[in-house]
Amino acid sequence: MKIPPFKEINSPNKNGYWINPKTKEAYGGQYISPLLIPNLQKVEKCFKKALKDKKFMKGLEEKLLTFIGVNTPILRSKELEEIAGGQKKVGKIYLKRTDLHHDSSHKPVNSFSSCYMAKHIFKAKKIICETGASMHSRSVAAACAMLKMDCEVHIGAVDAEKVSLNKDISELYGAKIVVVHESTKSLLPAMASALRSWQSNPDAMYVVGSVAGPSPYPRMVRTWASVIGRIAKQQFKQITGKVPSTLFCVCGGGSNLMSMAYPLLKDKTEIFAVESAGEGIPTGRHGATILGGSQMGILLGFKSKVVMKSAQIAESLTEASGLDFAAVGPEVAYLHDIGRIKFRSTTDMAAKKTFLMCCEKLGIVPAIEACYVINAALKEIKKRKNPKENHLIHLCGSGESNVARMIKFKRENE
Amino acid sequence: MKIPPFKEINSPNKNGYWINPKTKEAYGGQYISPLLIPNLQKVEKCFKKALKDKKFMKGLEEKLLTFIGVNTPILRSKELEEIAGGQKKVGKIYLKRTDLHHDSSHKPVNSFSSCYMAKHIFKAKKIICETGASMHSRSVAAACAMLKMDCEVHIGAVDAEKVSLNKDISELYGAKIVVVHESTKSLLPAMASALRSWQSNPDAMYVVGSVAGPSPYPRMVRTWASVIGRIAKQQFKQITGKVPSTLFCVCGGGSNLMSMAYPLLKDKTEIFAVESAGEGIPTGRHGATILGGSQMGILLGFKSKVVMKSAQIAESLTEASGLDFAAVGPEVAYLHDIGRIKFRSTTDMAAKKTFLMCCEKLGIVPAIEACYVINAALKEIKKRKNPKENHLIHLCGSGESNVARMIKFKRENE
Amino acid sequence: MNKNFQEMFAKAKQEKKGSLIGFATGMDPNYKTSKKILIEMAKHCGAIEVGLPFNTSTSDSATIMDANMRAIKAGANTEKIFKLIKEVKSEIKNNVPFLIMTYMNPVYVYSIKKFAKKCKTSNVDGVIIVDSNNNSPEDKELSKELKKINVAYVKLVAPTNDEAFIKETLKKCSSWIYIVSYAGLTGSKQVNVENVKKISKLIRKNSKIPIGVGFGIRTKSDVSKVIKIADAAIVGSGIVDIVGKNSKNHNLTKKISSYLKNLKKGLNK
Amino acid sequence: MNKNFQEMFAKAKQEKKGSLIGFATGMDPNYKTSKKILIEMAKHCGAIEVGLPFNTSTSDSATIMDANMRAIKAGANTEKIFKLIKEVKSEIKNNVPFLIMTYMNPVYVYSIKKFAKKCKTSNVDGVIIVDSNNNSPEDKELSKELKKINVAYVKLVAPTNDEAFIKETLKKCSSWIYIVSYAGLTGSKQVNVENVKKISKLIRKNSKIPIGVGFGIRTKSDVSKVIKIADAAIVGSGIVDIVGKNSKNHNLTKKISSYLKNLKKGLNK
Ligand SMILES: Cc1ncc(COP(=O)(O)O)c(C=O)c1O
Ligand SMILES: Cc1ncc(COP(=O)(O)O)c(C=O)c1O
What we know:
The complex is a heterotetramer, with two copies of chain A (414 residues) and two copies of chain C (269 residues). Chain A has 414 residues and is of the alpha/beta class. Chain A has a domain at 68-104 and 227-412: 3-Layer(aba) Sandwich (Rossmann fold). Chain A contains 16 helices and 16 strands. In chain A, helix 1 packs across helix 5, helix 10 (217-225) packs across helix 12 (255-261) and helix 11 packs across helix 12. The longest helix of chain A is centred in the last third of the chain and has 17 residues, at 368-384. Chain A is globular, with a radius of gyration of 19 Å. Chain C contains twelve helices and eight strands. Chains in contact: A-B, A-D, B-C. One pyridoxal-5'-phosphate is lined by residues 105, 107, 132-133, 135-136, 210, 250-257, 322-323, 367, 369, 396-397 of chain B.
């Protein structure tokens, strides 16, 4: 098994912007203290060098295959087809099993690639990162352990509680954990905290956990992560002879979405991104950006769609630590605005019920983040009622770290 | 990727015994209430039918590939080579990444296969199983969820505490958990409890978690599980051009050992099994069978090597719930006695330190069970000092459910 | 056929009665009390099964598992159980036959030949091995050795067994055969009379061997129902329960005695 | 160059002194107190930076983050900060120039054109945007709009920046340039004089623009060291600290006043 090579499409311009051809709106860029500009230039240079460095790429791909285990299967789920109304009515449903990765999510593909670049090309001795569900920190910490680099993780205090298993694993890997007590105590202030820390440690390399942050991060992260989608596309064609009719991914920042969607952007696949509606979008207590009343804004180094209250970034709220973010990555916002990606949302309650359903009916413990997409996908697939379609859902993580909260939920609801 | 087909070697005789050609000692058999004899005959008939049923085997293999994800990679670990003294001195070290399976251990390969057979050939509506580290129960429960069968799990009270994460996941999958408070409150009384329960539910099928129990279980379990080793052997030949010089597996009952060793029995590979020496074999507080003073005995339906105190089965004791068993499977005992498999042991303390080492140096959270083998393998590899050798270590599980205890251990030891 | 069992069944037949076989775990709760219990039981029972405890038994409910553990804690082992039976038999006035009921491991570990010899010298009249399979080499050896010395080898058959299995079993079985009345553990359910009828028929088609029925017999009425079909009713958990609940009670033997007296009222054919 | 800044630097030059620029977050801890603080600061400082708080700032230490959150809780927004500055400026007797220091988001969301206009009508003399990149369209637009109305656009340069970057920055920078003295957050370390020397040299090679130095200046001696090299010393966290610790204290303005008086002693060239 070889990883299908990367083909650049949909590049940002030299300043890191995607430009909407109709509105001329620019997404992305680099909004950060001048202190970090040289670092960002260096990251960009290293990234471009890495892509061209055959030895580096070969070494990286071998590690992705044998350490991260990116060659995960695609599972046909007759169980989900049944729930959606039967294959004869709604078509076939497939799950991309990214939950089987080392460290149990899509995150390690970008994390490991970025750290491998940091080690071999950037020549950093230390990595700084933020984390929500601690899937990113866990995989960055694993990469740092193997690559003998220091690792500093910024995590919101609420998430440190919620996903303590992943946090503890990050610590076992040797990461230094910085618990952030600001604002929502979740992903967004954690990312601000990480960016701040980078300013005090400009020799370190910062590794973003989603397709967000100042240029070149959104592009770099989606390029690394697209390994998942490149493999999935090839597998899907082998299984069904075609690209998927629909693709469903959850969307926090958008890294798992872009990991799968990127190689399909020029194909006929209809792409759906699913946001967390939290307690319901009208309550204002949610993690939905596109569907939650976002406007263009600038935060954490990039310009994109952001939910705000006057000019302040709104406080997102959702059960899923990985979706607790009031913005989406710039390329995602761009792809939404030009109409390439459609958005749906799922409430926390529906996601939690989907979690229990997946355990009981599929024999799979999904990451809570993945439950938002499964729920919304089933609804959309039911509605489409097209028996000729082949649907692909990104099962972007495994839910060990959600078990403590979900078993409580199960027991309380029985 | 196709699973290399099964080739029967080293079969037991028609009564389920392996016979030592020199001593005429018989290992295995069927020692159980007459109540269960018809069930065992049915299991055996179903098993033989299953192996010949092409449609069944095709369906099973597809699920093993896409649901369990058996096509896990082999990772070359330069980090372990370094620790052992450097590749130039000790050769190359490879890890079979069974930790990347669905439900994080080698167990699901047998569990799923057995449940799939129970569903489609035995036509059972209910599965009964015992569990130690809850890796087996977790994967049986997952299979039952997908296959729409009831699942009853017997687990010792001590283990229910120790590996509560896996127990909770079993519960999320819908398993009914029976907590066993007898004797050591661990794997052995749990297995007795499961066998007892089967006598009250002879319409159910019992699914053993290791290569133990009355005939045909030892043979059936190793046959199903050998999918792992068949793939590993093929992969290893692709990578190195040869079969491994040495193979290292941990040994509780022996299922992960047999899963890897079976396809290599007729090859030149030197095979090492590693037992838990607990607090040290001389203390009597351990989980070592072969090295812990075992003699031939009869328990839980089979005859094999057993550690006893007068005629009572001894109480094993070890940190690793999956190794807390005073016997080994009959085929394992046989292979030891004829000299094909060599035994080593590791203390709990050394295993716990190896756990932390793997996290910090490899970026891998191994199941605590796997730490016994890694530790012993490194010692043996160091001692052999043969730069021409290619060593294969079975990383038979991932340690999420050990994190709670191990992070405490780490903090107490810093 | 073992002489003591022969006499027991003959006498019962004469009296138009069935026999009551009592079970207690040897050395439960300890050597001394167990001895008193067995002596008391010998006054009321046609035969007595003494459990040689095994800590990894696979067919016992919690009641008997607990008894096993109490006995093991009190130092029970194969040697001591033989000694216990020998002493009891020398103190009782009658010829009530005694069986050892156990699992294969203690016998195998003790050595099958030695075990059989010890049965003879300890005046043990029969042996029941719960987990002995007709096809195992140990089963063959044990049945051969016991036959030599005229010690009964009582084998179990269960509702799940077919005629072929029963025939096979009968070949080795001596003195009487033991019907397990339901699919389940000792003392975990009510005796299943329909099962007993069905299995008895299959046995009777092939043999005239006396039939004992066990599993789930606790009351006079249970005994009565069983005795309508079979030759002996075996009561285990009912007795062990009393021992478990009264192990330090001075009235323990009295309680067992009155329990057995009541059961005996169900023995009329 | 903005007139008020021109006067400030000219006067200081005449007196052979450096200038002291004070920073406080607008509306911290609330509108009324903030107004008093700013009026008091205007008595001692050559210029004043007013923080327009942003809840997702990326370059501030906890001290200023906390101040931002206090101000936001008190209702701070762009409109109110303009109002605050306008009122303060109308009440003070002198021409002390006021800057708004903030991040790009509040400006962008408010609309850059509208923001520039509002600077003019609110008597704001300068603007500092911490996260404004020379290449962003917003930076271009803002610098253009501010130039039109003679409001200073003060840009930051840091120890990690090279000459090319400084040259690029100087093209847009007006009235003065802000040296970030170390790699780190506001108020998180001690001022780094070596860095300041190095960057000043690079600036001086390319421009005569006055230089302000910020980050890590807290004491008279810090001010003194910086003034040996640059034209102005910027003090932020030192002041915000006092506000944070004394927000309900009646002596708050007195404390600030005496803190600033002491710092001024370090202004001699
Ligand atoms: C399992 C999982 N899925 C999804 C996400 C959401 O992030 P993104 O949209 O960037 O993939 C996270 C973030 O932590 C995650 O852990
Ligand atoms: C991860 C793991 N490894 C090893 C074992 C030991 O069992 P066996 O020797 O049967 O493979 C267990 C049992 O639970 C286990 O969970």
